[in-house]
Amino acid sequence: MIRVLLADDEAMIRSALAALLRLEEDIDVVAECADGTEAIARALELEPDVCVLDLEMPGADGVDVAAQLSRRIAARFVVVTRHARPGVLRRALSSGVAGFLPKSRGADEVAQVVRKVAAGGRYVDPEIAADALTDVRCPLTPRELDVLRVGRRGETTGQIARTLSLAPGTVRNHVSVVLGKLGVETRQQAVLIAEEKGWI
């Protein structure tokens, strides 16, 4: 029996997928979680075989949940998303995610991916994989991405500097370089591009 934890902040989708997966003879849905924080807590408590995680959830997104849990439990991770951006796929795979598919897939296909991942395999939706191969690589350095990530909600230069243990002038320099590389005028525009591309 494959023990599965489901996490999705959309209650209807979560409960429908749980009900359909429970019809499978070899799958047992042991938890349904409404956000990333709950998913982490329940997964640490139950240690499921596979966690099926929505990419975009409050608390922590599916990739962050997988990254945190992969260091602590032996579960395997499948991320489902409505907006499958190539950059997110790269981030997911580097965080220990073994399955990646769009929410447009049926419950029977999700069940097949759960089985494959539980058996040690990997699955990436072919269309997402093709898009990822043709997508432009991120031109920003890891530190530049850190500055955007920490300041994505409008934090001040001083707040970003404190969080990253940098001087405010260094943060301003990083922001200036980012704006030049991305060809935009504001940090918020840079954040939007980085989020859309899945870089942060």
Order of helices and strands: EHEHEHEHEHEHHHHH
Cα gyration radius (Å): 18 Å
For the largest beta-sheet, the strand count, sense and barrel status come to: 6 strands, parallel
Which strand order does the major sheet show?
2-1-3-4-5-6
Overall shape: it is: elongated
Measured by DSSP, the beta-strand proportion falls in 15-25%
Number of helices: 10
Overall pLDDT metric: 91
Q: What percent of the residues sit in helical stretches (DSSP H or I)? A: 40-55%
List the uncertain runs. Answer: none
How many individual β-strands?
A: 6
Q: Kindly, what is the distance between the CA atoms of the first and last residues, rounded to a whole number of angstroms? A: 36 Å
Keywords: DNA-binding, Phosphoprotein
Organism: Microbacterium nanhaiense
GO molecular function: DNA binding
Protein name: DNA-binding response regulator
Note down, in words, how this protein is organized.
The chain has 200 residues and is α/β, with parallel strands linked by helices. The chain contains 10 helices and 6 strands; from the N terminus they run E-H-E-H-E-H-E-H-E-H-E-H-H-H-H-H. The protein has a 6-stranded parallel sheet, sandwiched between helices. Helix 2 packs parallel to helix 3, helix 7 crosses helix 9 and helix 8 crosses helix 9. The longest helix is centred in the last third of the chain and has 15 residues, at 168-182. The protein is elongated and about 60 Å long. The mean pLDDT is 91. Pfam families: GerE (PF00196), Response_reg (PF00072). One of its GO terms (molecular function) is DNA binding. Residues 3-118 form the Response regulatory domain.
